[in-house]
Design brief:
single chain; alpha+beta; 6-stranded antiparallel sheet; 385 residues; 25% strand
């Protein structure tokens, strides 16, 4: 990112959904890396919409195509590059790549995400799902006809997988290096710190797949996150909707790189993350989701602003213990809403470990057992569609 920080201006096409007028407004969005200021020009009305100004919390790492950022309470989506120079500079500094945690790697998903985040990658999209035979064939089309293909196809369709879009400088090659050689024996010998050396078992059950080129990354990402034909749908998120509850890793915790650590803590305490997807919420959705707290909790509007301030990671949580009342027991494990109280009376809870304040308390968790399935469905059935 060092080189791009010296660029005078980065230019993008951006959109904002104007709720009052029920229209999508389009802008030229300019970001100035030298002082992290922004400027917006209204394309339709041919006039300046926002003069060059500073927005608290907005940095260069937030500026990439596909991201939604908040500019003075407006949810602005960056949809494309506005000029060739910006595209060229951003392609070098914030390249996109893709990886997939395989069925054998799911048990270590928290640790694997920790490895990815610790290595400096930014996660822009993530979804836990399952692959059909058709999906698996599309994913590994270059291996069709090879002796190992049937075994590979059987494995990647045998259970849940997690597709992950990552961003960083030289992301494709850096991710390949982090993942390590396909053969786990070779990985253990030559790349002892790689993901496959740490979590893999053999050539096929090697925990994770990484795209071999930028072109492959685009193809494989589209399989997970975009419709393959006009009017179609992307792969559906995976949820059980029985004896489960909803847990949301809040934007501040996602941005602090805590997602993998929180998942590890959850699964080391006899709970299971059975559904997982990254969402970008606007204030309307956040208000709707948190409406039960309106007029009850003084921090309600601050909670809404936090939940819509950046990407959040929605989880369906179940238990490895069949007799566990998940909504009740996981609520206890989350800890009191105030992290300071949690540290004093429930020091082994998630909020005691990772919370900072009543608003930035790391996670939202379903408070009322009767609301658990409704909250899970809100994210994984309504928002995901």
């Amino acid at each position: 990112m060092a080189e791009i920080s010296k660029v005078d201006k980065l230019s993008f096409l951006a959109e904002w959904y104007d709720i009052e007028a029920s229209v999508i407004r389009q802008f030229y969005f300019s970001f100035f890396p030298s002082d992290c200021t922004v400027e917006m020009f209204d394309i339709k009305n041919h006039k300046l919409f926002l003069k060059r100004t500073h927005c608290d919390g907005l940095t260069l790492k937030d500026i990439f195509v596909g991201n939604t950022i908040k500019i003075f309470s407006r949810e602005i989506k960056i949809v494309d590059y506005a000029d060739g120079l910006t595209k060229k500079k951003m392609a070098l500094s914030m390249q996109r790549s893709f990886c997939m945690i395989k069925p054998d790697g799911i048990v270590n998903k928290g640790e694997i995400l920790c490895c990815i985040l610790r290595s400096g990658f930014q996660i822009s999209r993530l979804k836990m799902t399952t692959l059909s035979k058709e999906d698996g064939t599309f994913m590994y089309s270059e291996h069709q006809g090879k002796p190992f293909f049937p075994y590979l196809l059987e494995h990647v369709t045998s259970g849940p997988v997690i597709g992950v879009d990552v961003l960083s400088e030289d992301a494709v090659q850096r991710l390949i290096a982090l993942v390590g050689p396909t053969d786990v024996t070779e990985a253990k010998t030559k790349c002892a710190g790689s993901i496959r050396a740490t979590f893999g078992q053999d050539v096929t059950r090697n925990a994770i797949h990484a795209s071999k080129s930028a072109e492959k990354a685009e193809k494989e990402s589209k399989l997970f996150f975009e419709p393959r034909f006009e009017g179609g749908t992307s792969l559906k998120p995976l949820v059980q909707l029985r004896n489960s509850t909803c847990c949301i890793i809040k934007p501040h915790a996602v941005q602090e790189g805590l997602a993998g650590k929180i998942i590890c803590m959850i699964e080391k305490n006899n709970f299971v993350v059975s559904g997982l997807q990254l969402f970008y919420m606007d204030e309307i959705n956040a208000e709707e989701f948190l409406e039960v707290y309106k007029g009850v909790v003084p921090e309600y509007m601050s909670m809404v602003k936090q939940l819509s301030s950046g990407p959040c990671l929605a989880m369906e949580v179940t238990s490895s213990q069949p007799d566990c009342d998940v909504p009740v027991e996981f609520r206890k494990f989350a800890g009191p809403a105030d992290p300071e109280i949690a540290k004093r009376i429930r020091p082994n809870t998630i909020r005691a470990h990772y919370g900072k304040s009543k608003v930035e308390n790391a996670i939202h968790v379903t408070d009322l057992p009767d609301d658990a399935s409704l909250e899970v469905e809100y994210f994984f059935k309504i928002l995901s569609s």
